[in-house]
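Example 4.3 (complexes with small molecules)
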Amino acid sequence: MDDFYREFILDHYKRPRNFGTLENPDVTHEEDNPLCGDRIRIDLCLNEDRVADVRFTGEGCAISTAAASILTEKIKGAPLERVKAFSMEEMLEALGVPLSPIRLKCGLLALKVLKTGLYGLKHWPGEEE
Ligand code: ZN
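Answer. The structure with zinc ion bound is encoded below.
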């Protein structure tokens, strides 16, 4: 792993941004990744068509925690249209590290929680049951 990105991931892992819960969230959703033992919950407060506030909690490996931290930074204050368009490719690009197929689920867990919480996706594309 490239040093810059290793530091970037570790920084988000050690000092996760927007960590915690919201008092009266409009959306709260939690998912886990049994392969790794990661568990991420995301709380959202919506203001019309924007993400007014976002927090996440949970326990996970460095990748899943960093991904959640990075994702909350990206969507805080963003229009829902932007959130809806946030793709798996974009999430992986934001992480900036190559991930093995197993680690891919770590890197995409937070995005899965977000999308499922907001849109109730029954099926997460790219994931075989
Ligand atoms: Zn993990």
